[in-house]
Amino acid sequence: MKAVALECIGIGLAYGTNQVLRDITLKIEPGEFFALLGPSGSGKSTLLRLIAGFNQHNRGRLLVDGRDITGVPPHARNIGMVFQSYALWPHLSVYDNVAFGLVERRVARDETRRRVREALALVGLTDYAQRRPNQLSGGQQQRVALARTIVIEPQVLLLDEPLSNLDKKLREQMRLELKRLQRKLGITTIFVTHDQEEAMTTADRMAVLDGGVLQQVGSPRDLYDAPANRFVAEFVGSTNVLSGRGDPDRNIFVADGLGDLPLQSPGTGRAVSVRPHALTIAAVRDDRRVWFDGEVRESEFLGEFTRYAVQVGESVLTADTPHLSTTPIYPPGSRVQVGIDPAELRLLP
Amino acid sequence: MAATLDADAAPRIGARERLRRRLGASWRSFLVLGAISAFLLALLLIPVGTVFVTAFRDGDGSFTLGHFGTFFSTGLMRESFGNSLYVATASVFFASLIAVPLAYITVRFQFRGALLIQTLGILPLIMPPFVGAVAMQLIFGRSGAVNLLLDEHLGWSLPIMQGLTGVIFVQTLHYFPFILMNLIVALRAIDGAMEEAAQNLGARGWRLFARVVFPLAMPGYLAGAALVFVKVFDDLGTPLVLGQTNMLAPQAYLRITQVGLEDPLGYVISVIMIAFSILALWLSVRVMKGKDYSTLQKGGAGIAKRRLKPWESVLAYGCIVLVLLVVLSPHLGLLLLSFARMWSFSVLPDTWTLANYATVFQDSSGMMRNTLLYCGLAALIDVAIGIAIAYLILRTRIPGRQWLDFVASAAIAVPGIVLAIGYLRTFQTFELWGVPVTQTWILIMLAYSVRRLPYALRSCMAALQQINVSLEEAAEMLGASKWRSVRRIVIPLMAGGILAGFVSSFITAAVELSATILLVVKESQAPMSYGIYLYMQSVSGRGPGAALGVLLVLTVAVGTYLSHLLVERANKTLEHAR
């Protein structure tokens, strides 16, 4: 099967005056595992349904393998979608569910049988062909939905919140399985999620959406280490955002109510982001970091680390300190030193 | 990139797609919408409209209220109007007296009797009141079984089948299940926490019921009560069979059949009947608007059930058995009558025979065939339209879809006799193959389909509502066109609901009398319901009439049971389709 690219060019969608998607331009490479990440109402599911053909965009173009598929009805698109609710047909057996798309394509009976068997084998459900969907567990239903979609060899595979209906343990297992399956088939895959951890662990690249606007596209590491704006910084992982003003002449950032922070490279941003685990809580200062006096407001012991809320100047910073059995835990009210590693500071617009 | 240059332009789409977007639906949807609209226009709106126009039009065609003046200045009309109001109101009152305690007992207490009450609720519905009326007279009438016994042993009798009281008695027994069933559903939907909160604040016993439980179930009660009012107010068969013609529906019937199609008073009565039907239904919705208290959350517990103390148990069972006996009496009476050679002035029939059934099978097989034909066709039309309307409403944004639902459902507020009068008036000049349409059975069948459309429509809507849209989208995703996904996924999943709709349309059409009685012009066209009515007219015909009634009741009972099974099974399959 040839993997194809999918391209959104200036796509916009509005219902009346309500702009759901604005000017989405995005290229997904052949064979890529791509995540659409965003909070609810961000437009990520709308974009996915638009690619599937259930929503029609008002502006822009949608290309699959270089061909504009705008206006092509869903059934003629050859794009497969796995629904959040799985949408298995309760009146059909597992076998008939999987065979559905092949029947629609008038595939010969022998070949249908072979391909359904292959698809079921691929998801490890060979023995379940004659069962009804409601006789299967959630994880098994998920696999049937997957088998039903990949059996038609779609050009693009869409997954709508594929793991949200599973419990935590099953979710992690399915996550690995999905990834392995996608590698094996090499099919261009887009999945929608609101869970940044899910997106980061699974996707080759991801896009963050908010309010119908594309915020940033890149590898999970790009987005985590170099967030393009405040929203991405806060949505992908947790962070401290300090507002202020970058001063390129002195190569520092003047943080409101805190003071001067040295920068590694000059810039003029209006805010700076620093991850909680890049902050150090200590009793004494060293000279690798910039230090401030602080007072512990709250502490949460989480096992691997302790999360402190520390009052520094006028701001309250979140700091995660790795925990070993010999590490002290500072109770609320303790006076501590808060160290910031200048290499971990990210300027934001 | 060249591609980005025209990114601002609107996407290139075909003309058909542009049209689809502007109108919010495909041209096929419009075709279906148009066809259904034409059906409803021709067979519901225009006939009913004609009735209204005729009621307000003078001999020279100008608007007048004169006919209404005549109506209210005629003593007989005023009396009929008052009688109809009185009978409908009293029936609601007595039906409530039976239904409310029974509903409360079912929901509140844990005992086997609850199942009995459920059955009790269905029993009267499988027999139209006019069928049981004669049997009731034989049991409760002046010289009926009960009064003969009372007179013999106690020296007094109970004039319960006398005059209007008889109508009220029969109607109450037949229609209280509407209140019972609605109320039970409403009571079951109450969140137990509501009641616990009231108890926590000190309410208990009667006050707990009156201040918290019953008000919460009010929407269910009112829906049932309004339905009973409308059914009784519009009923033609029962007063006719009981000889109480000084009521609105019988007067309309007599006017049209004896004075003629031109007599305006028949139309005035029709307008008044529709007005009251609409008023009652509208009030029940209006009063409770925004007060849907069905608060039970998924997984939450309903109101607490408790065990009966022994003496309470005796009381409850006593109550139920008494009601059951009375409710079953028309059925029992009908059965006895169908096996009786003679039954009058005696507690039980004197001699037994199977001759009545022989007569019926000999003389009335045509009627049975007619019932099957008319009701089968009518129910087919109903489910076809029901599916189409449900799909248009729940799956498209086609303009006007709400109206379709509204108009189709409004058929429930049109009494059968009014629809029939409208048909006679509207189609009096139409001919089909040289025969006036009003002389053919087609109109009977179409009247059935229009009147029972709301039943099939509700069934289809409920069935489609339970099917998650993504089930269809998944089919489209896998290469099925819209029509194919409807055929392969939606219709099979709706099958249970569709069948249940078919059955309920069929059985309610089978017992319909008020439109039938006006539209049947010769005996060869008569369905079973009309046949029963004819037989019951003469004393010698009662036996065969009862036999035919028993057959009809059996058909309806089996049908009801079947549709119940179908719904249960469909719900089971659909648990995973939501």
Q: Summary?
A:
The complex is a heterodimer of chains A (349) and B (578). With 349 residues, chain A is α+β, with helices and mostly antiparallel strands. Helix content of chain A is 24%, strand content 35%.
Spatially, the strands of the biggest sheet of chain B line up as 1-2
Task: Round the mean pLDDT of chain B to the nearest integer and report it.
Answer: 81
Describe the global form of chain A: elongated
Number of helices of chain A: 8
β-strand percent of chain A reads 25-35%
Largest sheet of chain A: 6 strands, mixed
Low-confidence region ranges of chain A? none
Q: Report the end-to-end length of chain A measured between terminal Cα atoms.
A: 43 Å
Strand coverage percent of chain B:
under 5%
Find the structural class of chain A using helix and strand composition.
alpha+beta
**Can you give the helix content of chain B as a percent range?**
over 70%
Structure classification of chain B: mainly alpha
Radius of gyration of chain B over all CA atoms, rounded: 26 Å
Biggest interface, chains and residues, is:
A-B, 44 and 38 residues
Oligomer: heterodimer
Mean pLDDT of chain A: 89
Q: Biggest β-sheet of chain B, characterized?
A: 2 strands, parallel
How does this structure look, described?
The complex is a heterodimer of chains A (349) and B (578). Helices cover 24% and strands 35% of the residues of chain A. Chain A is an alpha+beta fold. Chain A has a 6-stranded mixed beta sheet with strand order 6-7-8-3-9-10, sandwiched between helices. A 5-stranded antiparallel beta sheet of chain A has the order 13-12-11-14-20. The two termini of chain A are 43 Å apart. Chain B is built from 25 helices and 6 strands. Chain B has a two-stranded parallel ribbon. A two-stranded antiparallel ribbon of chain B has the order 3-4. In chain B, a hairpin with an 8-residue loop joins strand 3 and strand 4. The longest helix of chain B has 34 residues, at 75-108. The model of chain B is unreliable at 1-9 (pLDDT under 50). Chain A binds chain B through residues 7, 9-10, 25, 52-54, 56-63, 68, 70-71, 73-76, 78-81, 83-85, 87-91, 100-101, 104-105, 133-134, 145, 148-149, 152, and chain B through 3-4, 6-14, 17, 21, 468, 470-471, 473-482, 484-485, 488-489, 492-493, 495, 573-577.
